[in-house]
Amino acid sequence: TCDALRPALSAALERTFDTGTHAACSFATSSPSGQVAFGFHSTSDWVELSSSDGTNSQGRLDGLYLSSVELDASFHPTAIGWRGMVHLPPPAVGLASWDASGASLGQLPVFAVSSSPDASGGSVLLGRAQDATSLGPTQLIWVSAGGSATRSVTLDAHPTAVQVAWASGNVLVLTPTMPAARARWYDADGAALTPWFDVPAGSAQGYASFSPRLRLLLDGRIAVGDSTGWLAVISDGVGTAEPLPAWLAARPSTRLASVLGGRAYAVLPTAGGPTTADAARFEIITSAGESCGTVVVPDRAPEAGVTAQPRRLDVGWDGTLFQISETSGPALGTFGAHCAVRWWPGALQ
User: What is the dihedral of CA 84, 272, 300, 12, to 10 degrees?
Assistant: First the structure.
């Protein structure tokens, strides 16, 4: 029932940050074990790792190159640490791995396009070989938790989004061609399961400026969207796109987090960075698409001389709920950007 799916948010943990004049708080997430990652956006993004209660700093990951919509495509936990896109050439964009203490496990020597976590604690990467003047064919590359490539297959197109279907290990890739996107399924060994097939455009503009995002749903299908909303769903291993389910079509400008042991979604506002508006509430939807209503995030405790504006909500891999607020006011003293991150460990576990 819905009563069992609505979290009771107790007192939050909180950390505040002064990020200077050219950086801002960007996102927050957590690993399945509860380790917290605070993300920051600048000319080169970075992540600070922390214990679940925020009291013990556990490392810093520098040089990241992150997506703000579907974060998993560019940064996610592995079975032994973290993995993310990095902007530390060469190549211009690579895929790096770290252990849970932030120690480097290496970087794959390919141009990284997009990645997806898999059910084993590793990842699948879309990557291209790069020399001084050109990029090679796009490959699907399976990457272990330790950061090594275990197998790869060369593709006959240049997809820009990838998603693993966890139940089967099948992999969906999507290419933003005109006038419709093209998608294809591969099995866990890299063999093609379907021909390339169309994914309908969501508007008259088609995919002229389409930046695709993929999200694994609780029923095993994959939702296809872009920065403006959701467009279609694709069943595991099936070479056709389907219309959106009614509950998802009714919530176009959203992000989805699978929560409560796979029984529900937290429907979060789309977040493009620190200028995102209202981030003080989210909706709980059952796996069948029934709304269980809105959860209002408690206000931050008043602080003299400080104003806090919520900017983003995130849910980590262990069900931790995060709220990022931009803070300002005379009590902060120093010039530059300030933010506060509040979180409720395991609130949506």
Answer: -30
Q: Which among 138, 148, 163, 30 has a CA at the least distance from the CA of 96?
A: 148
Give the containing element (helix H, strand E) for 248: helix 246-249
Beta bridge partners of 159: none
CB 215 within 8 A of CB 70: yes
Residue located via tokens 């060369």: 154
CA distance 65 to 67: 7
According to DSSP, residue 192 is labeled B
Q: How far apart are CA 81 and CA 72, in angstroms?
A: 14
Q: In whole angstroms, what is the distance from residue 203 CA to residue 69 CA?
A: 20
Q: Can you give the pLDDT at residue 277?
A: 53
The neighbour count for residue 109, using CB atoms within 10 Å, is 13
Tokens of 57: 């700093």
Residue count of the chain: 349
Distance CA 231, CA 108 (A): 32
Statement: residue 10 has pLDDT above 80: yes
Q: Residue 53: exposed, middle, or buried by beta-carbon count in 10 A (0-12, 13-18, 19+)?
A: exposed
**Residue 325: per-residue pLDDT:** 92
Q: Is there a contact between 41 and 325 (Cβ–Cβ < 8 Å)?
A: no
Q: What was the pLDDT predicted at 93?
A: 87
Residue range 121-150, pLDDT digits in tens: 999 999 998 877 789 999 999 999 999 999
SS3 82: strand
Lookup: tokens for 315: 């849910």
What Cα–Cα distance (Å) separates residue 106 from each residue in 50, 137, 150?
21, 23, 14
Amino acid at 41: H
**Residue owning tokens 């209202």:** 278
Q: In Å, how far are 1, 93, 287, 306, 324 from 339, measured between CA atoms?
A: 36, 28, 34, 11, 7
CB of 33 within 8 A of CB of 318? yes
